[in-house]
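RETRY 2/3 - previous attempt timed out on the joint model. Re-submitting the same 434-residue input unchanged.
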Amino acid sequence: METKGTIAALDIGTSEVKLIVGELLGGTLNVLAEGSAPSAGVKRGVIVDIDQTVHAIKQAVTEVERTLGEPIGEVYVAISGEHIQVKDCQGMTSIKGEDNEITDDDVKDVLHSAMVMRIPNELSVVDVLPKTFTVDQQTEITDPRGMIGYRLEVTGKLIIGAKTILHSIKRSIERAGLELAGYVLESLAVSRIAASIDELELGVGIIDIGHETTTLSIYEKNDLVYSTTLPYGGDHLTRDLTYKMNCKYQDAKLAKEEYGVALEALGDPEEKVSYVTINGEHRFEPQSEIGFVLEARLEEIFEMIQKRMTQAGYAHMNSGLILCGGSSSLPGIDQLGKRIFKQSVNVYQPASLGIRHPKYAVAAGMLRYVLSRSAVSKSGFDRAEEKEVVAHGREQDALLMNEQATPVREERSTREQPPKEKKSFSSFFEKFFG
Ligand SMILES: Nc1ncnc2c1ncn2[C@@H]1O[C@H](COP(=O)(O)OP(=O)(O)OP(=O)(O)O)[C@@H](O)[C@H]1O
Ligand SMILES: [Mg+2]
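RETRY 2/3 succeeded.
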């Protein structure tokens, strides 16, 4: 699909598998097909049953292929969760060609060298995101190809994930008859589409409220500086309603999605949802009562997020907060957010036809992220390959540098140290990929 400038993005969520195929036309995202299927083999964002996941992926693929009228070959897949770490990295290589002109192969070599890091056996390097290059003494280079030099260095970010979790994702995709084109970090993907360059520069928090997880990602100076995932989401809202209404999960889910509001005050006490209790009794639940239950749980989730933001030193973001994920489609959730976080809160949903729902933010962000990625990064290496990197000989230097790397979940004290680089990897992306 990639050769035609179109790609397929897969988001294996806890409640739904979402698949979008799209292309970028003059900076505008053009969605060619989308499909989704209920996801039964995923718990808190992690695949626990490959068979069930394969089944859901196949369903979504069938839907998309029907619209497209052609088969999907390869897909990019979103990765997220507590098992993901983002670390600073550096790499170095000598330039091989006789004329000393830097080629794609040199870039590939230097990116590979940046992946040399001693990591525990159970972890894999998923991706390397170049920030800036140095050719001999010349620093701050964004694309070194075509330049002349002897020594090429790179600084950037390394994405590391748990081998077992990544393996299940890869295996599910392959068993669904697809090829894995590469992994994309959910937080980065969403930031590409839900926030503007200015917001990412000035500081913004993105909160993805899914089904069993809520992920907060903080961006400052175009850099992902903090990320954390809570094991709460829409599933908890639905479960709270089953107790309140004494009904089946599916009935509570329907009530939530059709009549739910994030604030009791927004619910109309005269508007009543008709349903059957678990004992077979016919009952009516006022919308305001549904709002009361949802508001209480959402308030709790937001307070937990706020606590983590404060602990990490990001209590107030200059550009405020952006909500996405399926649960953020509840009316009034932005108002509730403003009340709790005491800053501007907006809900993001993709604008493209067919995916106008905040639950599509990750998949739509992936499309933009991958389609606008530079040739420098693409020339790097096969992104679908999970790397197991062992340091040898000369690579020891890189290893030692990398051992001082800090994870994304860094606290304010670390963050407040003056940045060594003027540009972040995200601004690098903007230049090349944005
Ligand atoms: N209109 C709606 N009103 C309220 N909630 C909704 C609505 N539409 C979807 N949801 C809820 O959104 C959740 C699914 O969102 P999403 O697709 O973003 O989650 P996911 O990616 O599958 O899960 P996770 O990110 O936790 O792995 C479900 O709990 C669903 O009930
Ligand atoms: Mg999700």
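Residues 287-312 form the longest helix (26 residues). Closing ticket.
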